[in-house]
Each structure stands twice: as structure tokens, then as C-alpha cells.
Write a structure and sequence with these properties.
Elements: H1 7-16, H2 29-54, H3 62-70, E1 83-90, E2 103-106, E3 109-118, E4 121-126, E5 138-139, E6 141-142, E7 149-159, H4 167-179, H5 187-195, E8 200-207, E9 214-221, H6 229-242, E10 248-253, E11 255-267, H7 273-291, E12 297-298, H8 300-308, E13 313-321, E14 328-329, E15 334-344
Length: about 350
């Protein structure tokens, strides 16, 4: 908006206000007196342009987006800790119950036993918040000695740890709140309540799905993939706390529909088939995430475009999706999940 307010333009306007019978050339007293002020004003206009972008939800970022969203009751999701399963045995390989609060280390991560599941199995919470707690599996070492402990293994991810919400995700929820306002429990309210839960990437609401007074909320995780049972339970519990009286709400996970892609490609010089296949698979995965709950099919033409735009691909033929050469339809509760990607030459 203020891009025309440059140092040169401001200085020229200031010099135009000085009578022509006064020396205004570069290096003159008048010029040297006005130039610093023009420079400061140009810097001010630059900063005003930045402030203007930060004032609107579509262009704001960082702390300013966080404050803007908070004005409307939309708050940034903080990072959460992974909940894992720990399996413990004694020296005779029998199930062993460790004390609640026991701390165990796996490389640089520390996990704390928080709740007993069954004998020898405990819920373990990562002390470091974020997705880093989801990544490693293997033998745990007690931070302090535990008498009678034989083996300790970190296994399943029960509730994935989530990183702090991205600006794009917060912006999406904020714009949804102001553009699709809720009204005492309409579909927009249920969509907003579901996506307020940490770990939910998107939600789809089906009113009257099983008769009057019934509502179905279908969710996916932050990767736009089917949600874990624990996340479904969390969303259900949260909606029960905030929903209006009278509604019967069912929360379910979306069903993943595998999308298998195969094609024959012509490679450019210097590229390997594996490198091209890896990049293409990544592009397909991103596209499928974008289609979750937004379209009713996976586009055959779009996949072809992605393949043709993959670095190293000159041309392709015999492209199939799930064995066919047409769009792949998605049911109401389905989200596409990338299956196999097979490229040949």
C-alpha cells in the first residue's frame, strides 16, 4: 500500500516545497537538511506496510496472528507430550509393575510412567512436548535404579505428541470462526469444537445422520489421516462439555481409502528412478492431504500433472490410480491415503 513512498519520492516532495531561487542540488544545505528526514519517513512507511499486513488474519503471522485470533476466542494449540506404552518384565521375564512416576531414558528423551494399563504395561508420558516423543522405539533405561526390574521397552504410540500449532493451521481455524459463525449448536459450532482439540486437523459434520437430534462428527488427525481411538475419545469428551443440551453426538474417525499409483516414465539425464519416485510420492501425499474433506474424489488429471511436474520426468504413460484411468471417488467419511507408488521406465 505504501510501496510508492520511497526515499526519493518523499525527498522530491519536500524539495518541491522549497523556493526555486534556493540551491536544492545534492550536497546543498537544504538537500542535506531534508535527506535524513526523508529517509526516516521512508522507513516509517515501510514499517506501516508491515503493520498493515499483520493487522489482518489472512496475512498476519507469528505473535500478531496469535493475538488477532485470541480476540475472537481462537487460541493457538500448544505442543503436547506423546503418550506411549511401556512394557516391563522382571529378571524372570514375568510382567513387572514399576512405581508410578518412574522415569526412563531412551537416547535424549525421558518418559515417565503415569498409569498402569495391565500388569507389566504402563502409559508413559514424554517429558519433552512435541512430535519428537513419537519417533523412537526400543529399550528404556531407568533414570534411577529400580530393584527387580529386568527389561523395559518403549513400544506403541497411544496418543501422538503434537508440535505447537502452525500459523497456517491457526489462520484456518480463525478464518473459519469469523466466516462461518456458530449459532447455538449449528454445524459450524461442532466443526469448530472438534478442531479446537489438539491433534485434530479437520472435521466434517453430518446433522441428522441417524434421525432427529443426532449429529455425527468425523475427524482426521493433523496429517489429514484417520484419527487414533484416543483422539476420537478426546474430541467426544470435549464436545460433550460444550454442546447444547438435547443433541446426541457421535464422533468417529474418517476411514482411509488407499490410493495406489503406477506409471511408466521417461527420465531426464542424471536422474534415478528411485529419486524421482520419492519426490513424486511426497507430492502425491501433500495433494491427498489437501483433498481431505474438501473434495469428493481424487483427480486422475491432478496426479498426472504432479507426475509431469516432478523434477527428472520428461514424459509419462500408462498412469493408473487403483488400477484404473479415472478419478477415484471418495465416500462421505473417507479420506485418501497414499498406498503404493510404483514407477517404471
Amino acid at each position: 500500500m505504501f510501496e510508492h513512498q520511497t526515499f526519493e519520492a518523499i525527498l522530491q516532495r519536500m524539495l518541491d516545497q522549497v523556493p526555486d531561487d534556493v540551491d536544492k542540488q545534492e550536497g546543498s544545505i537544504i538537500y542535506d537538511a531534508l535527506a535524513p528526514a526523508a529517509m526516516e519517513l521512508a522507513q516509517m512507511y515501510t514499517e506501516l506496510d508491515v503493520i498493515l499486513r499483520l493487522a489482518f488474519g489472512e496475512t498476519s503471522t507469528g505473535e500478531y496472528l496469535k493475538r488477532r485470533a485470541a480476540d475472537f476466542g481462537v487460541y493457538k494449540k500448544e505442543a503436547t507430550s506423546a503418550i506411549r506404552k511401556g512394557i516391563f518384565t522382571d529378571e524372570n521375564a514375568s510382567p513387572f509393575n514399576v512405581p508410578i512416576g518412574s522415569r526412563f531414558r531412551l537416547n535424549d528423551m525421558v518418559y515417565v510412567a503415569t498409569e498402569k494399563i495391565v500388569d507389566g504395561q504402563f502409559r508413559m508420558r514424554a517429558e519433552t512436548a512435541g512430535s519428537v516423543g513419537n519417533q523412537e522405539f526400543g529399550n528404556l533405561l531407568p533414570v534411577e535404579p529400580i530393584e527387580g526390574l529386568g527389561t523395559a521397552i518403549l513400544s506403541d504410540v497411544l496418543i501422538p505428541g503434537e508440535d505447537e500449532e502452525s500459523d497456517d493451521s491457526l489462520r484456518k481455524r480463525f478464518l473459519q470462526k469469523v466466516r462461518e459463525p456458530g449459532t447455538s449448536g449449528n454445524a459450524n459450532d461442532y466443526k469448530r469444537w472438534a478442531t479446537e482439540v489438539v491433534g485434530v486437523g479437520a472435521a466434517k459434520v453430518t446433522p441428522l445422520w441417524n434421525g432427529p437430534g443426532t449429529i455425527k462428527v468425523t475427524i482426521v488427525n493433523n496429517d489429514m489421516q484417520p484419527a487414533a481411538n484416543e483422539l476420537v475419545a478426546q474430541v467426544s469428551e470435549y464436545i460433550e462439555q460444550v454442546r447444547p443440551i438435547g443433541a446426541t453426538v457421535t464422533v468417529v474417525s474418517a476411514t482411509g481409502k488407499p490410493i495406489d499409483v503406477s506409471a511408466t516414465v521417461v527420465l531426464a539425464s542424471g536422474y534415478t528412478l528411485q529419486d524421482v519416485q520419492d519426490v513424486f510420492a511426497q507430492q502425491c501425499r501433500k495433494y491427498l492431504q489437501e483433498t481431505a474433506f474438501s473434495t469428493t474424489y481424487v483427480s486422475y488429471a491432478k496426479i498426472g500433472t504432479l507426475l509431469l511436474n516432478t523434477p527428472g520426468v520428461i514424459d509419462y504413460s500408462e498412469l493408473t490410480l487403483n488400477g484404473g484411468t479415472a478419478n477415484v471417488a471418495l465416500q462421505d467419511d473417507e479420506v485418501p491415503v497414499l498406498g503404493s507408488v510404483v514407477l517404471g521406465v
